[in-house]
Amino acid sequence: MPNKTFISKSEKSAPGFKATKDRVTLLQCSNASGVIKPLMLYRSFNPRALKNQNKDNLPVFWRANKKAWVTSAIFCDWFRKCFVSEVEKQNLEFKALLLLGNSPGHPRELETMHPNIKVSFLLPNTTALLQPMDKGIMQAFKLYYIRIILDNMECNPDMNVMECWNNFDIAKCIVNTKESLEKLKPCWKKLWPALTAENDEESVQ
User: pTM value?
Assistant: First the structure.
């Protein structure tokens, strides 16, 4: 939720105030044809809201650690078990280029991990300028996600904001993530104008 909401004000004015520390990390990846199954990191691998659920059937690649941070080991795990298989489904020749920022969680060993996937790292401080994910995809996802939450609150007029938020759990977070990703239309127009022009011509014909 945005910081400037009534729920945040209610928290700060409550007796014995303690800021909410629950969090998730969502690792997103896309190409010109669509969004690849994201990695979601939570503080617990088996939260109560996902009790008895098969984590392999979730719409996200589910992992957990104490701080819900992406580590090199988790990123390599996502690369081997999720990224490779997802790209293989979309690419008949199975040759791909993975562009990454210079985050500590992106290990250099990825460059030699798969013979058909070339991994390249963007120059420092250029991610916001060059990376397609930062050119609008992640921002659009966040806006869709917040809109879904607010729409769900409007559907429960008998509950106030705090009550709606108290009923929100990680299972609903995953559902909202899936719905938000389905609304996305990955656009590489600013990075790859020629591809966008070709797609526009095909749609017209």
Answer: 0.74
